[in-house]
Amino acid sequence: MKITLTLLTVLFLCSCKSIIGNSSADVANEFIETLSENEKKVAVMDYDSKARHNWHFFPLESRKGFKVKDMSPKQQALTIELLGHLLSKIGLERALAVMDLETILYNLENKAAKRDSKKYYLTLFGTPGHGFWGISYEGHHLSLNFVVNGEELVSATPLMYGVNPAKVVDSAGTSAALGSRLLAKQEDLSLELFNSLSESQKAVALVSSEEPPAMEGYNAAPGPRQTIGLSTKMLDAHQKGLLAKLLHTFTENADRDFALEANYEFVREFDEMYFAWYGRDKLETAHSFRIEGPVTYIIFHNFQKDSLGNINHIHSLWRNRIKDFGYNIKK
What we know:
Order of helices and strands: HHHEEHHEEEEEHHEEHHEEEE
Number of strands: 13
Radius of gyration: 19 Å
Shape: globular
Distance between the termini: 40 Å
Oligomer: single chain
């Protein structure tokens, strides 16, 4: 998807050089220095605050943190620079694009006030650079949650991207190309994997032709593991390769070093994973998949309708039962 040159995107492009020389802690502390006392009360919380575990991707009226719309240009630039340390280039571009899609929804939905590309919130937890500290950045269709130990990223989940429209059908107010699909790679690989299955494999992988349970926010843990669908032990070499590529479409959003470690974790539990499918097997029809291992929990939905009534609305979530919000990581 072509990214609109919104103010935030311009600020990111202008800040790329400084990302090289500064650490995430440096940028976070610089951001804190710009805050007034009142701004600091909403933007900075204790690391152990319960609010750190409250995440969601609905277009809520208000949420924790400091709203981008209320930030100064410098604060907005530092916010994007901070995300640039925690996400990969493609992960940051996708996040900016998710925000930009709010402009399309604003136009399609008769200028609904809840559709606002700057209604996203940054929260810092703890003291950047000292021990464990956290970052939350979220709004409609975006929930990014990170834990850093000093200057090392140790947790990047829950990590959620939503896309509406999944395929751009009206780009008014943006430079998003008509027909572009922000999460095309995830969707296409999942369909390719499901359609590569034999009839006997499909019979096991297909859990239901109906919509799966909705994704839940505000929950501290992803819930007990479910061994539903097709065991990876029943996949052939080609199918295992497709699944590995599909898994990487989630980790590729995170910082490169963190993503590499997450990919190694996938390898360690690969033979204990299950691939489950819901719905149909073609684009522009309702479908969903989930991938679960002892640690990994991934779910992708395209069951909802877009603003024009088409099945064209994706929710994509990656969670880690051990590392979500930095749980079970020794301090």
